[in-house]
Backbone:
């Protein structure tokens, strides 16, 4: 939506600005006399700006902007440094695609715009567009700003020209970087948008707004802080697991079920560890972190031997087998060998049948 509207119209958000500039100097031709001058210039070209502006400009987008542009729907305006509150200094008569670039022709230029282009102090350009216009429902070109010292996002634009039927004067616009002496701008009549079939002005959707450099820095700082917190958490988890392993049997199953490893991890991951002052016996008080103090207490605990020995019945059977092997008579050994009875089986048979190997 145009940024110059009636005061009673709903105030629109700022459209997406993309800063364009030449790699070298930007030249322009100024016609003295004759019909009113027109300004033709490159306003956009394909480039992936997803990382910096969240948008990718593709060749089909340029053609869409050129095809959808209609001054009766909304006139793209020429301004200085995206001054949405000031007067328009020119209006886009048409847009077209030439090669891989989107061109615009601005007419009804203000005297301030002509003098600024001639002075060479506004050598760069910045495009404005929305990606969902209320009339077209798609990309729509809304304006172009002349920039002074502000750096562009897209470099390598071609030349811009002030045109008419008379000979032109070429002026180098690349070197100066200061604002021109501003004359008091004459306020143009407000230009509310009148859409086909709509008698009342239509409010524009919320346009794309580029994050300022400070916002980008803040976002990167937030991502860095999150990455550091994640790294600190992983280090704390590894440290807690290693310390629990070194405690051995001092850590009982009940302690594990109660969440001792998770508690140690939280204490180790704290960005500012809590401390306590401890005094052992007659010693001097000393300060230690809660994590280290808890580990000292656990290290001082006695080892809890786990019941991992074999069942008593199994030990008794082995002992009985050993004794039976030592006390068997030659006759008993002969019977066991003849019938393939193992010593353990012989013990079981003797326990069940006390006279199994007795001589009749």
Residues:
């Amino acid at each position: 939506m145009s940024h110059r509207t009636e005061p009673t119209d709903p105030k629109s958000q700022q459209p997406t600005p993309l800063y364009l500039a030449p790699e070298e100097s930007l030249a322009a031709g100024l016609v003295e006399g004759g019909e009113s001058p027109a300004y033709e210039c490159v306003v956009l070209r394909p480039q992936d700006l997803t990382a910096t502006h969240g948008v990718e400009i593709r060749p089909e987008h340029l053609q869409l902007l050129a095809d959808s542009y209609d001054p009766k729907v909304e006139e793209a305006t020429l301004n200085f440094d995206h001054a949405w509150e000031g007067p328009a200094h020119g209006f886009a008569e048409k847009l077209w695609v030439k090669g891989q670039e989107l061109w615009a022709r601005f007419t009804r230029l203000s005297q301030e715009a002509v003098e600024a282009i001639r002075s060479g102090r506004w050598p760069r350009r910045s495009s404005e567009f929305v990606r969902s216009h209320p009339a077209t429902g798609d990309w729509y070109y809304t304006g172009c700003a002349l920039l002074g010292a502000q750096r562009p996002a897209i470099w390598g634009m071609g030349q811009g020209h002030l045109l008419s039927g008379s000979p032109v004067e070429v002026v180098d616009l690349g070197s100066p970087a200061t604002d021109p002496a501003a004359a008091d701008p004459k306020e143009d009549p407000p230009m509310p948008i009148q859409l086909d079939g709509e008698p009342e002005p239509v409010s524009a959707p919320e346009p794309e707004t580029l994050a300022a450099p400070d916002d980008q820095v803040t976002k990167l700082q937030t991502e860095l802080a999150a990455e550091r917190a994640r790294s600190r958490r992983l280090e704390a988890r590894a440290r807690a697991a290693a310390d629990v392993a070194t405690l051995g049997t001092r850590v009982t199953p009940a302690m594990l079920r109660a969440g001792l490893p998770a508690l140690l991890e939280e204490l180790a991951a704290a960005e500012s560890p809590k401390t306590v002052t401890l005094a052992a016996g007659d010693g001097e008080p000393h300060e230690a972190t809660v994590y280290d103090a808890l580990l000292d207490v656990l290290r001082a605990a006695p080892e809890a031997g786990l019941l991992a020995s074999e069942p008593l019945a199994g030990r008794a059977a082995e002992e009985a087998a050993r004794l039976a092997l030592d006390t068997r008579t030659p006759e008993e050994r002969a019977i066991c060998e003849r019938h393939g009875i193992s010593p353990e089986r012989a013990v079981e048979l003797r326990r069940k049948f006390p006279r199994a190997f007795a001589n009749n």
